[in-house]
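Slide 14.
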Amino acid sequence: MSRLSFRPRPLDIHKKLPIVKSARELEDDEPTLALRAAPPVLRHSQPEPAADGEVHPTSSKKNVQEIPTPQYDDVDTYERDYTRTFAQPTSYIRARGARAEIGEFVEYDLDNEDEDWLEDYNNERKNLNPEKLEVLLFKLEILDHKARERAGVITPTFIGPIPVILQLDSAMEALQYLSIRYAVFQAVYNYWKSKRERWQKPILRRLQPPPPVNDTNPYNVFRPREKAYRLHTRRMQRRENSVQSFDKLRLVRRNLEQAKALMSALIKREERKRETMECEVHLRRIQMKYKAFSKLDQVKMIMQIQMILPASNHMYDQLLFILDSLIISYQLFRQCV
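Slide 15: predicted structure.
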C-alpha cells in the first residue's frame, strides 16, 4: 500500500496563507484531496459515457474566501460638521511650550550644593528664599536653552561641554516681571553660570542631551536604542557592548583577581616551607658538628677567652655567663637526645 509523499518546497514569502473561518471549507477541500489520491488515468483511455439522465458533478467550484464587511451608515451632515480647515503651512510645525514654560510650574529642585550656597548668601543679606531661587534657576535654564535653539548649536547627543550662551543683560530683561533686585539676580546668575561650567551640561535633567549610541559606559542612562541592522552568520560571533557583557567581564576579572591572590598565598607558603627546611638542615649540621664536644674543649675555650679579653673588661663576665648558659643548654639537649 503506497502512501502519499510530499516533496518539501521552499516557502514563498509572497504567497498568501489561506484563512479557514469555518469547518465547511475543510469539507470542501476533501474532494480535492481525493482527486489527488486517485490513480492516474491512461493517456489514450476514453471516459466512459454517462448514463441516461446522469450528470457528472463539476469540480470547478472555487473556495472563495468571504471577508465580512461591517455595516455602516452614511451621515449626511458630516461634511458640514467637520469642515476641511487644515492648510499646509510653508514652514515646519512648531509645538507650543510646555506647562512648565508657560505656567508657574517649576521642575527644578534645590540640591545640597544649592542649599549650601543659599545659606551662605542669606547669612550676609537674608533676602532670598528657596522657592525664589528654584524659580530663577529654572527660568535661566529655559532661557539658555531657547537661546541655544535660536543660535542652532543644540546637538542631538552629548559629545562635549555645552557652553552658556545666555547673557546677564538678556536674562535680566526677560525676567524683569519677577521684580527682583539687580544685585540679587546678578549673584544668582553668577552662581548658576559657575555651576553650569562645572557640570559642562544643563542642570535641568530634561534639557541634557542623551549620550551617543557608541558610548560603552553602562552607567550612562537614557541612551538612544537605535541599532544598525547587521547580518549575522554562523561563523561570525556577536559581540555587543551590553550590560550582560559588562557583567560577564566583571565576573571574569573578579575570578582572575581571586586566582592571583590564591597563587600569591601559595608562593608564600612554599617559601616558608623552604625556610623551615633550611633551618632544620642547619640545625642538624650543628648537632653533627658539636656531637663530640667534651668538657676539655669547654675548658680550653674559656682559657682562650680569658687570654683574649682583659679581666677588667665588663664584657668578660657577660661572655662567661653566656658560655655557661650554652653549655647547660647543650647538656640538657644531649640528655633529651
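Speaker note: The CA atoms of residues 147 and 166 lie 6 Å apart.
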